[in-house]
Design brief:
267 residues, alpha/beta, six-stranded mixed sheet, 9 strands, elongated
Length: 267
Amino acid sequence: MSSVLLYEQDDLGVVTLTLNHPETRNALTGTGIVEAMLEACHRIECDPSVRAVVITATGTIFSSGGKIDEMQRQIGPEFGSEVLRQEYRHGIQRLPLAIHQLEVPTIAAVNGPAIGAGFDLTCMCDLRIATDTATFAESFVKVGIVAGDGGAWFLPRVIGMARAAEMSFTGEPIDAQTALSWGLVSRVVPAADLLSTAHTLARKMAVNSPSVMRMTKRLLREGQTSSLSNLLELSAAYQAIAHKTPEHAVIIKDFMDKKAARKAQKG
């Protein structure tokens, strides 16, 4: 794995991906982080032992998004609009697809400012935990561009259209407490507790049936775009599979054994 992205896996199958390019404040473009993230996503998808993923960063900044000198390069006359369109399609736009398609739960542990594409990266995850010093900004308009990485798809689904429009049209940052009240993050913790909180939550997920967790995530994803009738059909099919998993059988047997033991004590 590239040094710009650290890959660690614990005994329960929780993978921690750490953005590690402090000299650019963990910028996604022009650093190799996108390519490393794509490699990590492929590795996770191919490894059935992975149960959950935590994405965080070194230092006090989660990600500054795009590098300004990369934007300067893109202004150059040698880069026509069609060339740039293909550069996005075959570059950073592969990242939201890869993260969104991960079958295991993903948690963004946001250790500081998450700006532009860095903010959108957090929105690609299933949930977010932030330090009390974190800030979030959909700041593309501030540099005269749009969200080219799918932020316009993710952000309204996380915080609703009105608030997504406010963040996108002003480009202004919000603080961690505002993010909490808007439902952007589920928890705000001191910096010293960020990773322990994220890992504790991930491990609570990891102890559950891996197949059921993957199906649950798929149902949540499908529920965002499917009709109720289609989701109910998929739920019925998944439930039929879940009833036959060995994990479910063990849980039910344990429950029935305890119930029988309590009845015997009373009798």
